[in-house]
Design goal:
The chain has about 130 residues and is mainly beta. It contains one helix and eleven strands, in the order E-E-E-E-E-E-E-E-E-H-E-E. The strands form two sheets. Strands 2, 4, 5, 6, 9, 10 and 11 form a seven-stranded mixed sheet that branches. It has a four-stranded antiparallel sheet with strand order 1-3-8-7, with no helix packed on it. The chain is globular, with a radius of gyration of 14 Å.
């Protein structure tokens, strides 16, 4: 229904910042909300953040303590995730994903609800 193409990521020292992008295309454009998950080696996806495409409402995992920010960019077809004050434990594969029909963080946080996934980008934080 939608295709997600990610860019960004890379290697950064502890305390640094990175910005990830997720470009949305296809016939479902504008009808899906976009979230970010991350996967540590040997573990399943952990919820990071979500944004309602129409409402602009944002949702965050409390453990991030305000270090990450999700937003739509000026093109209105790309969602960004700004990662600040990065820690080594933030090292993971980061994925954007598209979902339709969620309205509570409990729904956004469940990876099983999602229709499409980006290819993933690696974020590595060194100490």
């Amino acid at each position: 229904q939608v295709q997600l193409v990610q860019s960004g990521g890379g290697l950064v020292q502890a305390g640094g910042s990175l910005s990830l992008s997720c470009e949305v295309s296809g016939p479902g454009y504008g009808h899906f909300d976009i979230s970010w998950f991350r996967r540590l080696p040997g573990k399943e996806e952990d919820f990071v953040a979500a944004i309602g495409w129409k409402s602009g409402t944002t949702y965050y995992d409390d453990s991030l303590k305000g270090r990450f920010t999700v937003a739509k960019d000026n093109t209105e077809n790309t969602v960004t995730l700004q990662l600040d004050n990065l820690k080594p434990e933030d090292t993971a594969l980061y994925y954007c994903a598209a979902v339709y029909g969620c309205s509570e963080i409990s729904c956004y946080s469940d990876a099983a609800n999602y229709d499409s996934w980006g290819q993933g980008t690696q974020v590595t934080v060194s100490s």
